[in-house]
Amino acid sequence: MHQLAITVLGHDRPGIIAQTAAALSDLGMNLEDSSMTLLRGHFAMTLVCSGEADAQAVESALFPLVDGSLDVSVRSLSGTDERVAPGVSSLLVSVHGGDRLGIVSRVAGVIGDAGGNITDLTTRLAGGLYVLAAEVDVPDGVDVDAFIAKLAQTGQVLGVDVRVQPLDRDEL
Amino acid sequence: MPEPPVLPESSTIPALPALPEGRVLPVVTAPDPVLSADAPTVDATAGEVQQLCADLIATMKVSPGCVGLAAPQVGVSARAFCVDVSEHPKARTCHGLIVLVNAEVTAASRNEKAREGCMSVPDLTGDVKRGTRLTVTGQLPGSGERVEITTDAFEARALQHEIDHCAGFLFLDRVAGAHAIHSRKVYLPPG
């Protein structure tokens, strides 16, 4: 059994997902987690699939997709990466302000230094406005107030607005 | 034709006092710092506040699709805004043109998530959870009379969005998750 990570990146056009999924299906590969979006109009998809075909076979099957404007890469994953940390609180960090170099680097640095793990991230550049939204798991034992204060201080240095709110999760 | 919304007796508001003629002002966009400032309360009876409210109405009315505008969006840090969701398909209760000064939310419940846009963030939209049953209080410009408005659905969302502007919050500060921010999709014509 092989678990493979596939990335497909390039010029957007209709049919990319259909072609990718058909090639995987024909090889008996089960498409597990996937994420696809347009990044400044460019197609960007990452997915994990598993089955009997190895990376080389999948790469060959996806080769017809590749042209000057679209690139595919396949790599084998080892072990299980499904980690569920015990005792974490989930926060949403929202940042917006004038675009400048280093916003993601500085904000992610503060999160990493506190032991926080970014589990989902979106950034958008819209004209001169830069927007970042990160979902962050913070382990128990971290001083959340101090963490938020540090993020706010970093925001001041960068000249951007930083807000932190608990991630709303309705358990039913 | 859909039935016109029926307003509960308690939710009618006094008529808006006469305001001076409004001027259409340019709308500022993020990251302008005026949009991030916690705006001060203002004297609802002051002449410049009446003029500001008239300007907000005039600017809202000439802006296609605009259902609300707050003072920071025209570059003025003040707690004043207008809202008008008349004929909007998502509105249930509708008070027509609402203009409030120094407004605040006194009760909000029944949160629902919906996608919002904003003239001050023209290229993005975001999924925001807000109360769909809402009570706000505020003052009418000119008379300074204190009023309470109870509403729901889209009018409730619009009021919370504008009150947020007055406190220096954009919908970007309220989005529901990392994947709740979206670029406005613009499709180029085929050819």
Distance N terminus to C terminus of chain B?
Answer: 39 Å
Largest sheet of chain B: 6 strands, antiparallel
CATH topology-level name of chain B = Peptide Deformylase
Side by side, the strands of the main sheet of chain A go 2-3-1-4
CATH class of the largest domain in chain A: Alpha Beta
Give me the CATH superfamily of chain B: Peptide deformylase
For the residues shown, what is the average pLDDT of chain B?
92
CATH topology of the largest domain in chain A: Alpha-Beta Plaits
- Distance from N terminus to C terminus of chain A (CA atoms, Å) equals 35 Å
Structure description:
The complex is a heterodimer of chains A (172) and B (191). Chain A is 26% helix and 45% strand. Chain A has two domains: 2-77, Alpha-Beta Plaits (2-Layer Sandwich), CATH 3.30.70.260; 88-166, Alpha-Beta Plaits, CATH 3.30.70. In chain A, helix 3 runs antiparallel to helix 4 (144-158). Chain A has helices at 16-26, 55-62, 103-113, 144-158, and strands spanning 2-11, 30-39, 42-51, 70-77, 88-98, 117-126, 129-139, 160-166. Chain A has four helices and eight strands, in the order βαββαββαββαβ. The model of chain A has no long low-confidence stretch (mean pLDDT 92). With 191 residues, chain B is of the alpha+beta class. Chain B has one domain: Peptide Deformylase, CATH 3.90.45.10. Chain B is 16% helix and 30% strand. Chain B contains two helices and six strands, in the order H-E-E-E-E-E-H-E. In chain B, strands 1, 2, 3, 4, 5 and 6 form a six-stranded antiparallel beta sheet that branches. The longest helix of chain B is centred in the first third of the chain and has 16 residues, at 47-62. The interface between A and B is medium-sized, with 24 and 21 residues.
